[in-house]
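Notes on consecutive records. When two proteins share a document, each keeps its own sequence and its own token line. Never mix them. Below: protein one.
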Amino acid sequence: MEIISCHSTSFYYVVNIRGKATGKCPGSNQASFPILKEERMCYVLFKPSPGALRYSGADQFCIKRPNRSRICCPINAFKEFENFDSSALGKSYNSYVVDGKEGKQNVTGVGKSVPKVIIPGLPDEDNKGDFGAPISSWFWEWKPKLNVHYEKSGCENVNSPPVLFLPGFGVGSFHYEKQLKDLGRDHRIWAIDFLGQGKSLPCEDLTSTSKEQLDGDVWGFGEEAKPWAKELVYSIDLWKEQVHYFIEEVIKEPVYIVGNSLGGYVAIYFAARYPHLVKGVTLLNATPFWGFFPNPVKSPRLSSVFPWTGSFPLPTSVRMLTEVVWEKISGPEFIAKVLKQVYADNTTKFDKVFTRILETTKHPAAAAVFASIMFAPRGQVSFEEALSGCQMKNVPVCLMYGKEDPWVKPIWGLQVKRQLPEAPYYEISPAGHCPHDEAPEFFLGQHEIYK
């Protein structure tokens, strides 16, 4: 739903309805909002762009969707809330509903209260029918033995802006299925798996050994790196270059980039280095740090203290440590526990995400690649330096943060907002580390960002 302009500089807080449409509005062929239930709501606050939110008369409230049909609902759908003022609809107002009661929200540093509007939820997945664009799966050979898996949709929309989605750590393009299906109806959408994650894993063993290995089903634990893997380190600098060549060789034109968690860091890092290939960046709970060890380019003396930097083969001590740690974190119980922790909305189904992550852990190279990632040096450009680079080069940035994220809490997003005061900031609740998967109703509505 195109109800928010990304050109405003305000803070926004959001509210979504969980649940499917339940009826038809009189005189309209559009589905109405369901009668609102407090326990089925996801709260989001924002100020609508001019002309987007309208009171259409006949006791109906409408949301305008440019180039698409409107969604309307009867005003009485909102009367369940105490003190709801229907005269405020379509105006710039400060009263809104919080847990069934009227209230105001003030954001430190802004000095203005922020209005709240309720957005309808998507239909239940089981009842979508032909909802959404078809998704196709592809592989791109970036370098010998390094195949990048990606998914795309909407390629027939030749005159639409291209959008590239970058995933967080441990997941892949599958984490953007909802965006690929919905945005693919109007845009050209790509989502990639970073090398070492998802399906972008080695197609053969990275190392060889002169003696018989104890376990032939485990790759990367040999005594010598194969020629193609000798300089390979699964680092943030590798992923930044992967994105660079993917855009140049596959998409072949500047794009809008959306990154969640680790993908957000890569997105802003890439945009600062290659602004001519970026139309805008959207950060979804972007991690502001990555890597435990110093970068040899930025800190050569300090990095010399750490002789191994994620290359192959793995040192013997690292192999032993990796075997112990990997056995613990690759099990289904651990993966399920982490997902329950980062998904704040317990109504969100993450069965597919769980299955795909588990499939990745079964790859013979997964453990060795994990070790390379954990010991890889930090990027040559820090998160703060990348933000400054985007600011100096006028790269538009949009911020979206799940309020209940236990890892990258909203305080990190607010720090970015202070560094980039012109960037719009959206805080979504209830939503955790993956707001695009927990509250796709809101995220899918931001079509104006990609224009």
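Protein two starts on the next line and is unrelated to protein one.
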Amino acid sequence: MSDIRQVRPHDSDSDDEGPQTPKKKVKYDHKFQLKLLSDPKFSPWMIQSKKNPNKAFCTACDSELSGSITLLERHNLTEKHKKNMNASNQHKKVTNYFQPSVSASFEKQVVASELKMCAFIAEHNLPVSVMDHLPGFIANVCPDSKIASAVKCGRTKASAILGNVMGDAFLSEIVARLKDTKFSLIIDESTDLSTQKHLVLIARFYDLEVQKTCDHFLSLLEVTDCTAQGIFSSIVQFFDRHLIPMKNVIGFASDNASVMMGEKGGVMALLRKENPSLFVQGCVCHSIALCASNACGELPNRVEELARNIHTYIMNSPKRFTEYEEFQKFTEAPLHRILHPSFTRWLSLEEVVKRVLEQWPTLKLYFTSAALEDKMASASAILQELHNPVIKMYFSFLAYILPAVNKLNLDFQATSLRIHKLRTSISSSVKGILSNFMKADKLKAVI
């Protein structure tokens, strides 16, 4: 019995294998804690890293840090960090440079000029490449200005100022207001040419500085999940990242798509779970356009197709457009271009219909010549529709009814305050439409 060895499981070949390799220690990455952003020790200099959400970012040292509280406290005590914090505390806000000051130094006046130029191209939606020429142009126009001659700001510098200086500064100011202000959230989706989905966030609140209700652009978020839950998650993540309380959202507005306004699973329903008293407003203009579009669906498709075919035949060929201008001069018709009905601009159909009716005699004469000389099937088909009195009757009907719909639409798109006039505008528009097929005494009982 003394010769029998006790063998542990899986260790029978231990003598043959030799010494075992020690196991590597598992390294755990500390996740960034959003609650640290409200800690007075870290809030003056720390934000969540944009490249890696699990890490912190020191704005004073311009460096990425671990999310560990211990490491963050050590970084806060380093000499380099203290020196950078003292330097950053002496910096002024970007908006201070926009305030005119006679006593400001020459360098500050040059910086203010560069900021104002960048703000100008952003406000007017100009390409950043304009900055390669704008400073030189101003210096040439104002040769006696030393400040204009000293401004050196091309497209690269302008892009950095807009993206890393002005954008972050203005966003920080708006976020600071939204933390203590009740506001409404306006959102919409869009797709760019690269098929990348974007979600725009706009905040509407009463601005005490200007004493009026203002709309402020918040952010343009890239989204991959375009479901209601995905959009809602993107909004919540943005608010959490900037410590904006969801309870401050008292209003919500968007288009009438089911993903936005669904009663059970839409973004509106998910927001109401956070705030049951949320006020919701769909896009009235979108609703009016949908009503008009569905009503026009009762008309033959040939009406809209004729408008599109006329535009395609004439305006897509410089030669045909020149020939058509000669027919306009011959018939003494206004020298107006043929318009194209847009799929997205809801008010465009009225002008298209009016233009076709205005040019109807000239169009008949032109396509008669085109059908005989060019002998094209498309020209003959258009000419046949132009000679159809029923088609012209439909165009005349649209020219009569669309102005009433568009007027109501424009009332809701007005930039000035018109809420006290909207009820009267809606009532008069509905009465005008109903008066076409109802007697006056019956109409009074309806409205």
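For the record: The radius of gyration is 33 Å.
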